[in-house]
Specification:
alpha/beta, single chain, globular, 6 strands, Rossmann fold, six-stranded parallel beta sheet
């Protein structure tokens, strides 16, 4: 077997593959290897995925949404909350719009289905590792329709490339909606210290020094996301 040099291995995107079916994991691993993408670990359930993502710090986690032990959306939220630089792509058999919406709201940067031509998978993973999003053209149309019908224009919209975690966005969303810190704590069922910690981390990431400035920055990020164009989306060859 060919040995990797430090130079060649450093250039490869590192991926954690998560699926409860070992056959699916093997097929995906082979497809990624054919595209010079390195699989650093595999997980069979959501809890293991969270642990391995924290241990290996991959560039991308490629995961199914239907997982034992810990469901996919919860696992995604925990992964991106603990490691904001780790990107997540959902690869699932479900082909409905709501599943895709759930994946993205959980913190995923991409949503693709298992009827995808697997030869396109390395390109999708590489694009996401570069900071792009990966969804099909058909799903982009769904997102556009959702934005058009969303109340108050950009309310609740979260850009894919945001440095904030889903929980940090939740805190800012509620504050922007006019809730007091005490009400945010009650709504999210978190301790006041935890809510303040999320807010402080969000402020640091946004480079601001007050709650009001953080809210303004969040609104600006939403406004930018509302103007998203095709250059922000990694389209791929495969089923629409």
């Amino acid at each position: 077997m060919r040995q990797e040099t430090p130079e060649t291995s450093a250039a490869r995107v590192r991926v954690l593959v998560v699926d409860q079916d070992p056959l699916v994991r093997r097929v995906v691993r082979d497809a990624l290897a054919a595209g010079n993408v390195s699989v650093v670990a595999e997980a069979a359930d959501g809890r293991e995925a969270v642990d391995l993502a924290a241990r290996h710090q991959p560039d991308v986690v490629l995961t199914d949404l239907m997982l034992p032990e810990l469901d996919g959306p919860t696992a995604i939220r925990r992964i991106v909350s603990a490691s904001p630089l780790v990107r997540v792509v959902v690869l699932t058999a479900a082909n409905d719009a709501q599943t895709g919406i759930t994946a993205l709201k959980s913190g995923a940067s991409g949503f693709v289905t298992k009827d995808l031509d697997l030869s396109a998978l390395p390109r999708i993973i590489t694009a996401v590792a570069r900071g792009e999003a990966a969804v099909s053209r058909a799903f982009v149309s769904v997102l556009i329709d959702r934005l058009r019908t969303a109340p108050e224009g950009n309310s609740g919209l979260r850009p894919v490339r945001s440095p904030l975690t889903p929980r940090e966005w939740e805190v800012l969303d509620l504050l922007c909606a006019g809730l007091r810190m005490e009400e945010v704590t009650e709504t999210l069922v978190l301790s006041p210290e935890t809510v303040r910690s999320h807010l402080q981390r969000a402020m640091r990431k946004l480079g601001v020094h007050s709650r009001d400035a953080a809210m303004d920055a969040a609104r600006e990020l939403r406004a930018s996301a509302a103007g998203v164009g095709t250059h922000d989306v990694a389209f791929f060859a495969g089923p629409a």
